[in-house]
Each structure stands twice: as structure tokens, then as C-alpha cells.
Amino acid sequence: MASDLVKRALYRSGLLGLYHRLRNRRALTVIMFHRVLAQDDPRWASCDPDYTLEAGLLDQCLAFFRRHYNVVSVDQVLAARRKGTQLPDRALLITFDDGWADNHAHALPRLRAAGLPGLLFAVADVVDRNEPFFQERLISAFRRDTLRVPALAQALAEAGHPLDPMPPDTIEGLRKVIAALEALDTAQRNRVLAPFAAAMDDGVRQMVTRDELRELAGGGMAIGVHGKTHTPMTRADDLDAELATARAIVGRHLDAEPPPTMSYPHGRYDDRVLERTHAAGYELAFTSDPVMNPVDDRPGWLLGRLGFEQDGIADRNGRFRPDWLGLYLFRAPTRRLAA
């Protein structure tokens, strides 16, 4: 209780904001979101809570950003990279990963109402596809009570990949099974999941359509690339497909030049991936490294991002806690990931 009171007092007194204004003046903060859903949206009940923000909380986050930062577009970041055009003090860029249809339904209207730009990284192969990635399909099935963790773990064991100990029938147990499934190649994983196909299908469109992607682009949400299949780049069988082909596909979806920006699925990259990212023509690449980016001269081409879960910025009653968000964002380390 005392600690919580101190956090509130630091924020309300303005001391935390002053600390931020001095410490982070020449840093670019990049925010990483995924899904945004209203509680009356039918997708809310079965979404992955670790990667979903309630729409009203997004409104409050945007108000927080406007109060404490200068929100910039990716075009401004590209200009700073290309020409050394100075970014404003305490610059902040808002990004969304994957290509969820709810980004069009719920995030875009809120960004437009706040007068703020954004950047969405779309997985090339999910555009115009109903079903999401297998991880989210499993979470949805579990939350809809059409799939139990022991049955899935048993199927994994029968395929020669037993888990010890057997994970519990909880969402935490399911995440352990998902981690084991992620370690399999696509063909192996598909064989394990085949008996659960019906349970994993909720019949609701989850991913963005081509028309929605174009409306996002026309509404102030720049579009970047998040790989071709959402496979971690470090484990991709065809890295050129995940980088160069994906860039061309997203460009065709937009009927525009291939995007110059991308983010790494699952945050995975290594030196080989970085080299091929350059070769594929990307000018900015975004990681999941939780750092702010120095911009004293110009930003590097490899940029860290700060993400957070809903329970990190709202109390158990769903009330927004700007002091929690400020304590997290304002104190993040600043580090250049690449020149």
C-alpha cells in the first residue's frame, strides 16, 4: 500500500514527468501493441489477454502519450534516418504487430480521433485470411472451453515430444505446450494439431483484409512488414521469402511501393538475419528489445520497442494507472542497437 501511494504521489506531483523530460529528451520511444478490442466485441471473450488491450485503455494511453511525448510518424523517423532531420524532443512512435482486423475496427478510429499517426506491421500471408496464428487459435479454443491442455499435451507426447512434468490445465500450462509446438517444424506441428482443427475454429474473422489494410494506410496508419508467415526469422526455412518476398506481397496488397520498414516476428533476429534484412531493402527494422533509442544525431536503423500487458497499466478493476505506465516507460534503458 505504501509503495502504491508513493507511485501515485511521484506521478501526481509532476516529479516523475520532470525526470522524464530531462532524462529522455533525446530519445525515441517506440511503443509495441498487438490487438485492441472493445469488451462488447465478440472476439474479446476468447482473445489472448497477454497481447490484447481493451479499447478504452488505448484511449487513455494515447492521451498519456500526447501529454508526455511528441508523437511522430514513421515518415519523420525515416527522414531523420535518411537526412538527419531532427526529431522533436521526447519523440514517440506507435506501432502494432501482426495485422489484426481489430486494429482497423478499434485502433484506427481512436488514433484518428486523437490526431495521432501509427505504424502497423502486417504478416503478408494473413491478409484476407480468417483464422489467426496457431498460438492464438489454441488460446481461443481453451478460453471457449473447446480444448483442454492434457489432450493437447498427450498428442504432443504421442508424436515423440513429451513434456515433463505434464503441464496443468491452465492458460499457463497451455503456454508451455505452445512453446513446445513452436519448436517443431511446420509439418510436425500440423500433424499434432490436425485432430484439434474443429476445436480451434471459432468461425470469426480475425485478420485484416486487403481493403482494410488500404483503409488503414489511407487513415494515417503506415504499413510495414512482419514477415511472410510469422515464423521467427532465426528459424525460417526460407529467409528470403520472409523478408524480400513478404515485402513485395505487402506492397502489392497496398498497390504501392514495397514498405521500407519491418518488425521481427517473435522478436527473433541474429547477425545473419540483420544482413539479409539490409539486402531485402528495408531501411528501418524494429525489434522487441525493451529499450529506447538515442537520436542525438540520427536514429539507428535497428530500433528497440517497449511493450506492456494490460495488467501492467490498469488495476484489477480495469482503471488506468498512468503512474504505472510512466514508471515503466520513463525509466527504460536507452541503447543504440545498430548504427
Overview of this structure, please?
Helix 5 packs parallel to helix 11. With 339 residues, the chain is of the alpha/beta class. The longest helix is centred in the last third of the chain and has 16 residues, at 239-254. 43% of the residues lie in helices and 13% in strands. It has helices at 2-12, 15-23, 55-68, 74-83, 101-114, 134-143, 149-158, 171-182, 186-193, 197-200, 210-218, 239-254, 271-279, 322-330; strands at 27-33, 35-37, 52-54, 70-71, 91-98, 118-122, 221-225, 261-263, 284-286, 293-294, 302-303, 306-307. The strands form three sheets. Strands 1, 4, 5, 6, 7, 10 and 12 form a seven-stranded mixed sheet that branches. Strands 8-9-11 form a three-stranded parallel sheet, with no helix packed on it. The protein has a two-stranded parallel sheet with strand order 2-3. It contains 14 helices and twelve strands.
Number of strands: 12
Number of helices: 14
Q: Low-confidence parts lasting 5 or more residues at pLDDT below 50?
A: none
**Overall mean confidence score, pLDDT:** 96
User: For the terminal residues, how far apart are their CA atoms?
Assistant: 44 Å
The percentage helix is 40-55%
Rg is 20 Å
Q: SSE string, helix = H, strand = E?
A: HHEEEHEHEHEHHHHHHEHEHEEEEH
Structural class: alpha/beta
* Inertia-based shape: globular
Percent strand: 5-15%
Largest sheet descriptor: 7 strands, mixed
